[in-house]
């Protein structure tokens, strides 16, 4: 998270520093985006998203398996 805050601050300062500031910002972004911290955040976020999708798919399958006079789903 600290890396992202640093990037935002670097962006603000870099855009005011001209072309050299922009080049420094680009190099910083490359360093940050290839860091283990960012990779861990992305992997964790993807893992959470995958778990939520599995739960949602399971809930939808349970709902469709119920046969109480229909699918249990309302027509939109």
Query: How many beta-strand segments?
Result: 0
Share of helical residues: over 70%
Mean pLDDT: 78
Kindly provide the radius of gyration, computed on alpha-carbon positions and rounded to a whole number of angstroms: 23 Å
The parts where pLDDT drops under 50 for at least 5 residues are none
Strand and helix order: HHH
- Please report which band the strand proportion falls in: under 5%, 5-15%, 15-25%, 25-35%, 35-45% or over 45%: under 5%
Content-based structural category: mainly alpha
**Distance, first to last CA:** 41 Å
Basic shape:
elongated
Counting DSSP H or I runs of 4 or more residues, the number of helices is 3
Largest sheet: none
Describe it.
The mean pLDDT is 78. Helices cover 80% and strands 0% of the residues. The chain has helices at 2-16, 18-33, 36-65. It is mostly helical. The longest helix is centred in the middle third of the chain and has 30 residues, at 36-65.
In short:
The protein is mostly helical and 76 residues long. It is built from 3 helices and no strands.
Task: Output the keywords.
single chain, 76 residues, elongated, mainly alpha
Strand-helix topology:
Blueprint (H helix, E strand, L loop, with lengths): L1 H15 L1 H16 L2 H30 L11
């Amino acid at each position: 998270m600290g890396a992202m805050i640093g990037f935002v601050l670097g962006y603000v300062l870099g855009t005011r520093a001209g072309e050299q500031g922009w080049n420094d910002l680009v190099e910083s972004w490359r360093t940050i985006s290839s860091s283990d911290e960012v990779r861990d955040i992305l992997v964790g976020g993807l893992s959470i998203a995958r778990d939520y999708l599995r739960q949602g798919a399971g809930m939808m399958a349970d709902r469709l398996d119920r046969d109480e006079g229909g699918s249990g789903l309302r027509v939109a």
